[in-house]
Amino acid sequence: MSAGLGFGPMTSASGRLLDQIRLSGVTARGTHGVFDFERREGQDFTVDVVLHTDISAAAASDDLTRTTHYGELAVTVADIVRGDPVDLIETLAERIALACLAPAGVFAADVAVHKPQAPITETFGDVVVAIRRERTILLDRTPAEAVPVVLALGTNLGDRLMILRSALEDLRASEGLEVTVVSPVVETDPVGGPEQPDYLNAVVLARTTLSPNELLATVNLIEAGHGRERNVRWGPRTLDIDVISYSDLRSYDEQLTLPHPRAHQRAFVLAPWLAADPEAVLLTATGTEKVAVLLEEAADRLSLRQRPELHLEHRA
Question: Are residues 89 and 203 in the same domain?
Fold first, then answer.
């Protein structure tokens, strides 16, 4: 039985050929099928998995935490096979693929589910359902329970403080989003783009039952309500709300990259975030890093100015 079953290699957004972790021949007994005797007696299912990932950080550091633990993956796959029965092995393959995408560094997963004892009256060798699922599928997935998110707010046009306060009220009023902590306000010089006024920035910690794409749509709607226009990259704006992180999800989608690809370099995100949560950590390309450490390394930290007289008046 061959893992992958015809799916080709994958490349990262930069065009680099991704590495693969292959797990073949995981066999467990399950009770999946449409017939009563299949549910009653059960049969063996075999699963092959290919994870498309980048193992360079793990290889350089010899650190198991920077790669997928294939022993734990094998247990997860077998537990799903032994778990709640489904009629179709298509459904079983989907469940396994979503579980394979859970580790942060996995870009995509190929899953092949074999049902060699399928109730077919003709002579046959095997029945296989093979699927590929990419991490972007998780962007539309609604969490079973509320998950933590980090949002960064910024403005450098109009009445900046009132805009931040209004945006915060809009976030509080958003269905499926619970604001838990609001940072102090900081003032920063613009980073990149044309000449423009200084920014006021803040960070909001929240919990949400929205999917990542639903959360993005929510903050984009709030931005639009405050007159946000996207005419000039890194240009001045009435309101900018960035989704910095969504639980421990990693996404390489062009519309919603998670965690935010430049958050680890931006003091105007890191400083208010650290003030809101002194133990905060951020998932980066090389692993999980403390926000306090990242802030010390941020090039724009010296231009950051604390504005303790400005309050967003968070409600307890």
Answer: no
The three-state secondary structure class of 146 is coil
Span 171-178, average pLDDT: 97
The answer as to whether 9 is a domain residue is no
Q: Tell me which residue range forms the domain holding 64.
A: 19-137
Q: 112, 137, 162 — which closes off a domain?
A: 137
Per-residue pLDDT tens digits for 188-228: 887 766 677 889 999 999 999 999 999 999 999 999 998 86
CATH number of 69's domain: 3.30.1130.10
Residues 232-252: tens digit of each pLDDT: 555 577 899 999 999 988 787
For the chain, give the number of residues: 316
> Which residue among the candidates 52, 114, 115, 260 is catalytic per the annotation?
115
Beta pairing partners, 186 = 201, 306
Q: Is residue 159 part of a domain?
A: yes
> Is 115 considered catalytic here?
yes
Burial 69-80 (b: 16+ CB within 10 A, else e): eeeebbebbbeb
Q: What is the CATH number of the domain that holds 258?
A: 3.30.70.560
Among 86-95, 99-108, 302-311, top mean pLDDT goes to: 86-95
- Asked if 168 and 196 sit in the same domain, the reply is yes
Which pLDDT score is estimated for 316? 47
In the chain, how many domains are there? 2
Report the candidate in 185, 246, 181 with the shortest Cα–Cα distance to residue 218.
246
Q: Supply 74's token pair.
A: 């094998």
**HSE of 270 in the Cβ direction (CA atoms, 13 Å)?**
24
